[in-house]
Amino acid sequence: MLKSKMLGHVGHWWGLAKELSPKQIEQEMLMPFRLALVGLPDRVESVWKVLTEGSNAQTLQLAAEYVKRYSGPPEAEYDMVLSCDVLDVPQDAIEQIVDYFQKQNFPLVALAKVLPGTRQVVVNKIVEDSSSLNAGIAMLSSVPSVIPLLGLLAPPAAIADMVILTKNQLLMVLRVAAAYGREPNWGKRLPELASVLGMAFGWRSLARELVGFVPGGIGMVIKGTIAYAGTATVGRAAAWFYETGKTPGKAERERLYEQAWQEARSKSHEWKTKE
Per-domain residue ranges for the chain? Predict the structure, then answer.
């Protein structure tokens, strides 16, 4: 019974995945960047070790092509020049680099692929952005039921809503995989992530049940909260898989659920104040 249910989930994801092209994410992975680390040699080397932690020989060689180290002014132009001497601790370089490139609209998966030390921060941003996007879509799709006039003009959006949320989750999972240097190929990713992706189905069923009981704007916030939590759980479960090579066990799933709920509840307070 469980096996047939899982196969059904995989079939559902595969049907949606075929409509999505990984080409964009492939291009994001290959985006070049030039980063200069400047400062006292020991400080520069400390930052270099933090950024390249977990690298294999191939990744380390690639990182050396993208990131140059200087004790004085850089000898060429760079996308970012980081002064290592002013950092309180070498780990502060990760947030500064990721934040800078994000503000430049640079695809963060390229950073994470080349600099494994940035992966955790990059993946968190990927998951948070995708979760917020799905929360916004879920709340927006509630508008026709909240405003009677729109309800008359717009068709029921529930099915379309679920398809969009699922596709966004799939793209998020591909980006998480890419951040860990994995090829964004559905044929390879879906089989290995079947159980992880199946976790999303319970959340969407719960969303449909809960939202139906709560009228008006409160229902919008609840729907957004559940969409955020469900998306965050799937994203972090995928990250756990690529970090450890294992599917999250029961204890880890419960921890991921709780973490996602806490984040979603915190976000929901912000949404309520903006209503």
Answer: 2-28+118-273, 32-106
